[in-house]
């Protein structure tokens, strides 16, 4: 039986006749996107049959042991559901408030911190990154701007050093690019470690403290924290498949450094991430508070050229999206099993957080298919649509 929220604690048998009629009435609210206070309010939190069946098949195939799926609009959560377990051991059931290791979904949050620094006049994205990190000692092959780092066209490779602790940061300052900037897109964690260090340098506080005061507190993201988590609730914290301790980051570099860095290390919930997505869809505002200017929203969401699929932290590439979403969709994935899509064109977002246990590529594709399955099931019914493009 599909598990419903407390406000919907009735058996499925009792809604066989009127179930879809009620759903259509409730979901009709999704068509309204007028002004008003944003809130994490679930308009519909029941199961969607094919989405649930597809998720079950992914768990049966060993791609993940549990998941939380959430979809929403600028002012409403229209779907929220948890399935499975928080670990392969199946000790604790997955719940909607589960806390996940976001892995590389940390990167667009770091990019957001950098966008705030740009808003505050602390950073010019077109300037050389060494202007803000004069201690850098590597050999450059031409100009590398802050924007080049954020778009993964800096020329830095994605090698992983094996030094540990604070010594790694000093060693990073001697890394050299493998090619001139702008020649080739290469996804590199090093770019975002540098961006995080720049945020710290220009703000005078740690990356964690900066994000807490400028992003998490204004958005009410109360369960979003950098690794290692203090006294983690083992019933809520999802254990990634490559670590043995809940609340410790899966990423080897972030774990070895032992303090917040820009490439990985954030833990969060679907609801917290929904607040961030709603802020983006509301052009930088949430609950009457402006977090980002519309100017930097454009920076995060629009590519200035075709040299990279990344705008500024967020990928804007149709090939990575569920087909039901528009070409304006911003997306990012995480190694531990996470995907987020924010579609400004259709004013909606989908979050799929899983405890990945299977092949990375297959699991990533399956998360996209899962999101598409949900979107298509919504689209079947006129009351479920919210400005979604036709099939």
Helix/sheet category: alpha+beta
Strand content: 5-15%
CATH third-level topology of the largest domain? Beta-lactamase
- CATH homologous superfamily assignment of the largest domain: DD-peptidase/beta-lactamase superfamily
Q: Tell me, what's the shape?
A: globular
- Give the H and E element order: HHEEEHHHHHEHEHEEHEEEH
The level of helicity is: 25-40%
CATH class of the largest domain equals: Alpha Beta
What does this structure look like?
By secondary structure, the chain is an alpha+beta fold. It contains eleven helices and ten strands. α2 packs antiparallel against α11 (360-379) and α3 (106-119) packs across α7 (207-219). The radius of gyration is 21 Å and the shape is globular.
Keywords for this entry:
about 30% helix; disordered N terminus; Beta-lactamase; three-stranded antiparallel beta sheet; five-stranded antiparallel beta sheet; 2 domains
Give a brief description.
With 391 residues, this protein is α+β, with helices and mostly antiparallel strands.
Break the fold down into its secondary structure elements and pairings.
Elements (H helix, E strand, L loop, with lengths): L18 H9 L21 H12 L3 E9 L4 E8 L15 E2 L4 H14 L26 H5 L16 H6 L16 H15 L3 H13 L5 E2 L25 H6 L8 E3 L1 H12 L3 E2 L2 E2 L3 H8 L28 E5 L3 E6 L4 E9 L3 H20 L12
Antiparallel strand pairs: 1-2, 1-10, 3-5, 4-5, 6-7, 8-9, 9-10
Helix pairs in contact: 2-11, 3-6, 3-7, 3-10
